[in-house]
Write a structure and sequence with these properties.
alpha/beta; Rossmann fold; 6-phosphogluconate dehydrogenase C-terminal fold; three-stranded mixed β-sheet; 55% helix; globular
Length: 296
């Protein structure tokens, strides 16, 4: 056992999947979930994602060795303020949020003052589905999990958190919170905005009814993530707006260059656009497949 007691603050897809993995891989003797509604308590119990579930925040974190915030970003500060007075000395607090800088700025010093450690985590895994019913023990298999320690992070706590994520199947990477937010803004947050934009535009009722009939596999695959939680993606966009504004600007400029090429009838530029995209995507996919195969 890595931990005697783990507290999951919020038990949705990520929290529930982590709860299943912790139990079935015998990484934590006790996995307690904190939720806000009676229906969520029932769902957690039925799905077996926790060993117990409570609506009492102090009870959830009491004597916990590991506390994992699995809520939307905007809720984390308030919840941390609520549980910090009840933290066990030496406890590790982490989160699974998609933006790290703002969370680290809000939580690190307060949690350290309580005698515990905050280290940000971001497992690059998920789904457009939500809730404990969507949880899967293998959700983190072969996923990259980013850890964002700072210069004062205790090496022993970082090593233990790294071991946790590796034990549930992830490949870990340690970088600064700001670098994480820059990279995630480009490869995770921007694609979601593009998918949502496509869904809003193409499926608008302003278009003829035949429009939706023509939307097939390519459109479905490209817009899949647009079915994700609007609350979660609102919080991500606001929390990472500094990086998102920049990457959106560059992306829009690239689209405008393609638009100008169409206006000029510039076949060579258009061909280069698609050829470059295919080459880069194929190389990425091949490297991704090799990495996953080598880790099996």
């Amino acid at each position: 056992m890595l931990f005697r007691k783990t507290a999951l603050i919020g038990v949705g897809l990520l929290g529930g999947s982590l709860g299943l993995a912790l139990q079935r891989r015998k990484l934590s003797e006790e996995v307690v979930g904190y939720v806000r509604r009676d229906a969520s308590v029932t769902d957690c119990d039925r799905c077996g994602v926790t060993t117990s579930t409570t609506k009492e925040l102090p009870k959830a974190v009491e004597n916990a060795d590991l506390i994992v915030l699995c809520t939307p970003l905007a809720q984390m500060r308030v919840l941390a303020d609520g549980f910090t007075p009840h933290l066990k000395t030496g406890a590790i607090v982490t989160d699974v949020g998609s933006v790290k800088g703002v969370v680290a700025a809000e939580l690190t010093e307060t949690i350290r003052a309580a005698g515990a450690s905050y280290i940000g985590s971001h497992p690059m895994a998920g789904s457009e589905q939500t809730g404990p019913k969507a949880a899967r023990e293998d959700l983190f298999e072969n996923a990259v999990c980013v850890l964002t320690p700072d210069r004062q992070t205790p090496s022993a706590e970082l090593a233990k958190l790294d071991e946790l994520w590796r034990s549930v199947g992830a490949r870990t990477m340690s970088i600064t919170a700001d670098l994480h937010d820059n990279l995630a803004g480009r490869c995770s947050h921007l694609p979601h905005i593009v998918a949502a934009g496509l869904a809003n535009y193409v499926l608008s009722p302003a278009h003829p009814p035949e429009q939706q009939e023509l939307c097939a596999t390519g459109f479905r695959d490209t817009t899949r993530v647009a079915s994700g939680s609007p609350e979660m993606w609102r919080d991500i966009s606001m929390a990472n707006r500094r990086h998102l504004q920049r990457v959106l600007g560059v992306f829009i400029e690239d689209l405008q260059e393609f638009q100008f090429a169409l206006e000029r009838g510039d076949e060579a530029t258009i061909m280069d656009f698609f050829e470059t995209a295919k080459t880069r995507r194929d190389e990425w996919q091949n490297n991704f497949s090799r990495r996953n195969t080598s880790n099996e």
